[in-house]
Amino acid sequence: MSSPTESQINPQAEPSGKGCVECLATSDGWWFHLRRCAACGHVGCCDSSPGQHATHHARDTGHHIIQSFEPGEDWFFDYAADAAGTGPELAQPTSHPDIQPVPGPDGRVPKDWME
């Protein structure tokens, strides 16, 4: 029998795209950083982003483990345990493209986003 953490991580699940699914579905959605669901590959925006879609996905689905979807970062976070950690290598790609701006996507970020 697998532990709850093991059932929350599917190394074969490919990311849902190069950006936050919900933000890209609107004409004005934007994000600061991206997070990837370790169970299903859903890419959502972080809690510093206006939509906080990664957290909403975790609450709505019960998929409580995410991995950073930022270049050069491989850390995991477990919402249920409120703890960061490590995990297995997930399916490629493991981050958004290096040329994608942060925040993003290009052309949607308000000029006053830091305020």
Explain this structure to me?
With 115 residues, the chain is of the alpha+beta class. The protein has a single domain, classed as Zinc/RING finger domain, C3HC4 (zinc finger) (Herpes Virus-1, 2-Layer Sandwich), CATH 3.30.40.10. Helix content is 15%, strand content 15%. It contains 3 helices and 5 strands; from the N terminus they run ααββαβββ. It has helices spanning 4-7, 21-24, 53-61, and strands at residues 34-37, 43-45, 65-68, 76-78, 83-85. The chain has a 5-stranded antiparallel beta sheet with strand order 2-1-3-4-5. A hairpin with a 4-residue loop joins β4 and β5. It is globular, with a radius of gyration of 14 Å.
Annotation keywords:
zinc ion binding; globular; Znf_RING/FYVE/PHD; UBP-type domain-containing protein; Herpes Virus-1; 15% helix; 5-stranded antiparallel sheet; 115 residues; alpha+beta
Under CATH, the topology can be stated as Herpes Virus-1
For the record, give the distance between the C-alpha atoms at the N and C termini, rounded to a whole number. 49 Å
Compute the number of structural domains: 1
Q: What class, by secondary structure content? A: alpha+beta
Mean pLDDT: 93
Classify the helix fraction into a percent range.
10-25%
Tell the overall outline.
Answer: globular
Biggest sheet strand order reads 2-1-3-4-5
Order of helices and strands: HHEEHEEE
Radius of gyration: 14 Å
CATH class: Alpha Beta
Strand content: 5-15%
Low-confidence stretches: none
Please work out how many helical segments DSSP would assign: 3
How many E-type strands? 5
Domain UBP-type: 1-101
InterPro entries: Znf_RING/FYVE/PHD (IPR013083), Znf_UBP (IPR001607)
Protein name: UBP-type domain-containing protein
Pfam family, one: zf-UBP
